[in-house]
Amino acid sequence: MNRYDMADERRRDELVRTIEHSIESLSLQELEAVYYDLVSKGYIEISN
């Protein structure tokens, strides 16, 4: 892995931690809104 890959991976980890920390304080309704937004944009796929 070159240094750019390492930097990208660190940035990705930082973003994931920030997102996790932020969503922990959301209400159920806010979480559902985020969830449906991500589903509608194709970031989350619902499997049947």
Kindly describe this structure.
Helix content is 71%, strand content 0%. With 48 residues, the chain is mostly helical. It is flat.
Instruction: Give the termini distance in whole angstroms.
Output: 37 Å
| Total beta-strand segments | 0
- What does the radius of gyration come to? 14 Å
Query: Could you estimate the helical fraction of the residues in percent?
Result: over 70%
Tally of helical runs: 2
What is the approximate shape?
flat
- Tell me the series of helices and strands, N- to C-terminal: HH
Low confidence ranges: none
Largest sheet: none
Overall structural class, as computed from helix and strand content, comes to mainly alpha
Strand content: under 5%
Averaging pLDDT over every residue, what do you get?
92
